[in-house]
Write a structure and sequence with these properties.
The chain is of the alpha+beta class. It is 31% helix and 24% strand. The chain has a single domain, classed as Gcn5-related N-acetyltransferase (GNAT) (Aminopeptidase).
């Protein structure tokens, strides 16, 4: 297992395969380049030089950060890859006072192990009706 922190050192098609393996099929190569180039932190886990896990974060570098897309290829889930992704991202965010994260449904317990807790005043605005039904109260 190898961790890489640069988009230029990984295969975009393999990133797309990770997203698609978990049903996130709107992630095409163009979108992937845009979202990772707009991210301040990116982490990729490679096994046998193939991308099997991805994660990214945005931050102001001092006070706030938001972690997005901690995703492991369906064929590699359950092997600790997400823990490696999140640990690497959190290490890079050391010193940031507030780190936000939105978990996908049923993965909340995983993030609790890393110290994440529900936010009392957190809010979100989703424009997709399916996501509204899944994530908003």
């Amino acid at each position: 297992m190898k961790i890489v922190n640069s988009l230029s050192k990984v295969n975009i098609e393999e990133i797309k395969e990770v997203y698609h393996s978990v049903g996130w099929t709107k992630h095409n190569e163009e979108n992937i380049k845009l979202i990772f180039n707009a991210s301040h932190i990116m982490t990729f886990v490679l096994i046998n030089n193939k991308v099997v896990g991805i994660g990214r974060a945005l931050t102001d570098g001092i006070f706030n950060a938001a972690i997005y897309d901690v995703v492991v290829h369906q064929d590699y889930q359950g092997n600790g890859i997400a823990s490696h992704l999140l640990t690497d991202i959190l290490n890079k965010l050391e010193g940031i006072s507030c780190i936000h994260l939105i978990s996908t449904t049923a993965n909340e317990a995983f993030y609790h192990k890393f110290g994440f807790k529900k936010v009392k005043t957190g809010m979100a605005k989703y424009r997709n009706p399916k996501l509204i039904a899944e994530y908003l109260e």
